[in-house]
Structures are given as C-alpha cells and as structure tokens.
Sequence to fold (139 residues):
Amino acid sequence: MRLDTLRAANIERQTLWPGVAAVDLPFRGLELAGEIGELCNLVKKLHRHRGAIAGNRAADPLVEDKLLAEIFEELGDALVSLDLLAMDLGLDLGPAAVEKFNRVSERVGIPVYIGVDRARGPDETVFHELGKGERVSHD
Ligand SMILES: [Mg+2]
Fold:
C-alpha cells in the first residue's frame, strides 16, 4: 500500500466519522500516543515472554504468535493515526520520511538513500550511492 492511498482513504473516512467535528489537533496527538502506547505494551509483553521475565499471564504455547498478531494490528493503527495527525497538519508522511531518512544516512555516513534513480525511471527507489554519482538501486 502506498502512503497516498492511505491518505486518500483517511480523508474519505473522516468525512463519515461520527463526531469528527470535535476532533482537533490535541485529540490527534493523543490518538497517536495511545496507539503507540498500545504497540509498546505489546512489545514489552513479547520481550517479557522471550526473556522468561515474570509478569505475563499463564503460560500459553501460542503466546508468541498471538502477540505478533496483536503487534501487527497495532502497527497498522499507529500508521493510520500518524497519517491522520499529518493530514490535520497539512503534511505528507512520504516526503517527511524520505527527507529524514536521507539526512540521517548522510549524518551517519551510510550511503543508502531514497530517491529517484533516473537510470531506472521516474519512480522512487532505494539506492546505494557508491561515490561520485554512481548508484546501485535495490528493488
Ligand atoms: Mg490500537
């Protein structure tokens, strides 16, 4: 799924969401924080399970699979909420992620970037810059 597809779906669904008139920027921030909190709680439980740290409920042979399924769901919630916050601020996640990803690559000296490799066409791709304009793209 492309981020612009998620944005289009969020825009459309928000027009139908009951109570949306009362949704404001603080709500969006809290919504995102709530979803991230849910995700982090599950990661904690998975870490506790894997490390045999006391605190989880009764032993369940399927706990790893169940927690991963719940984490999968919360990752989705977190991304949707992040896009809703960005949407309300009039910002796009894709360019924000590309810009920041490339800036961090530059800062830490790892030559992996996101951008357009003109030799491969107009679509964005991941490329490994070898030096003086030489690139290797990854599909
Ligand atoms: Mg959730």
Observations:
- Strands lie at 112-116, 124-131, 134-138.
- Helices lie at 3-14, 25-50, 63-89, 93-108.
